[in-house]
Structure formats: C-alpha cells, structure tokens
C-alpha cells in the first residue's frame, strides 16, 4: 500500500512571518489544538532563537503534550539549536541556504563550509533531538548535483527527512516534477516540499512534488505566510483527496472552521473567492449553473461542500431567469403561480440594478414577504 503523504503545518512559524501577524500564547495554543483535533501530522511551532518570549511560547506548547510531533525552525547554527533543545521540543528543522546566490551573498561562505557546518549541527542535534528535518533553503535555484551531494551526506548523518524549499515561489509543476523526480532517486529517506505562492502555483507545485515521489508537504492554514504566502492546507488536502485520489488523514470538515479561526486571530479577512474556505466558492449565480445544480449538483461541483464543512447557496444576479425564481420558492416550500413568479422576478431584477450586486436567497425571500 502506498505511503500516505504527511501534511506538516507551519502556520505557527512561516505563517507568523506574514507582515503584521503575531500570535500570543493563547492564540498559538488555540491554533495548535484545532490543527491537532483536525488530524494534522506535524506542527512547526516557531523559532526559539528569536528570543526568550518566543521560546517560552514554544515551551508552553510542548507542555500541552499534544499527540503530534512538534518541531522548531533553526538556522544552521549551534546556538539556534541550543535554544530549541531548551524548549523540550521533540524535533528540529535545520535550514541551510543551498543556492550559489545565498551561499555567496547571504552567508558569504562556500560549499565546503556549508557541508562542514551542516555536519556539525546535525551531529549535535542527533544527541539532543528525537527527529531531524534538514531544510534546503532556496533549493529551487540550487545546482542539482550539489543537492544530490547534500542528500547523500544527510543520509549518512542520520537525518530523518529532507525539505526542499521553493523559497521564492519561482517553480512550475512540470519543472517541479522532473527535477524532484530526479532527487527522489537519490533519497532513501522521505522528502518534503515547501512551496511559496509568489506566482500562484504553490498548490499545483505541491501536487507535482507528490507525483514526483515526495512524501511530505509543508502547508499553512489559508496559505498564510511570508510575502504571497505558502501552500494552503485546505487546498492541498482537498486536492490530494479529490484530484490525486490519495488518502488524507485530515478531517476535511474542519477546514472551514480552521480557516475562520486563523483569519480571525491573524486579523486577515479571507478573500471571498479563496478556494475551499472563501465565502463565494459554493455559491452559484449564473442561471445556467443554478439550473444545472437543480438537476444534479455534480454538474457544477466536483465534491460536495458538506465534505469541507460548507453548504450550497445561490445568489441571483442580472441574468436570473423565471425558472430560477420558481426553483427557489419551491425549495423553501412556497407555492406560486406564474403571475406571482413574474412579479417577483421583476422586483428582484429592479433591486439588483439598484444595488449593483447579486441578491442572496434571504434577500429575495424578503421581497416575497413584503409583497
């Protein structure tokens, strides 16, 4: 049986790197508990090296003894790792820049130094942590031969998982598939893909990574994260199940409440057209679509909204037809003849023109009651 893809949530780390977002201790706990109750596989909970307050919040999450692995993010620096060990966290992610751009112009070092420092940090972590993720920052711009060299060395050192990060979100699904498929042939340990959404391809790229043989995906609730954000947990989970037909441990019915919780605590409104959790994504307005779902919801929906904690709805716009109004009234148990339906349609279209927007079902029913 094919191994299930792990969903590794980093809302409490990379998500909190979104501009203006900061979660206090109770908020971190609420998000962590909600994700665990939904069935997440792993939580990346922060960066202890940021300071005492951040480390304290992480220690408090560790003290909850949640039934899921908690890991922290660290630079390839021994002092960072020491701060993580003090929190009591089970796992550590050690991130090292691997592109020539970042090795030379960020670290101002060379490949030999990086490999030596990687070895030093991993050997240290092996003594103190129960699980080690080696994060390859800016891997999408790195030399493929150097990536293979790192993978081989990481395996010798006993790393548990390797994370390939498309740090700038510049890759596309076809290049992801072919490049990452080449890497999976070199790896005897699980590979994880960490996508950024700068060009709007984070979910597609994450699926391509799975098709290339990757066994773990890094996600955040609502795609919250640095710049344009990360691969969205809700999009990736639903696409894994309904597009790739893969087993998903996550309770998809909790996705909507998760999105609402995180957007509220982050003080960021969910866009109305946001896939899965947006306000409009299960609302039909076109008369053709409304007619289609009257006959069979599968005409215009690939999966039932109830499966992700949502419901069908309709909104009536300027293209609303007579039969759409009749259907709405009948669905609410309201009898009507043709004259009544014609009159309601006329008033509905007039109201739509006045407000310059579609009307929700309740607004149309209000017109019925006022007639």
TrEMBL record:
GO biological process: carboxylic acid metabolic process
UniProt KW keywords: Transferase
Gene Ontology terms, MF aspect: acyltransferase activity, acyl groups converted into alkyl on transfer
Cited SUPFAM superfamilies: Aldolase
Ranges of residues in domain Pyruvate carboxyltransferase: 5-256
Name of a matching Pfam family: HMGL-like
Family of this protein: Belongs to the alpha-IPM synthase/homocitrate synthase family.
Protein's UniProt name: Isopropylmalate/homocitrate/citramalate synthase
Organism: Desulfosporosinus orientis (strain ATCC 19365 / DSM 765 / NCIMB 8382 / VKM B-1628 / Singapore I)
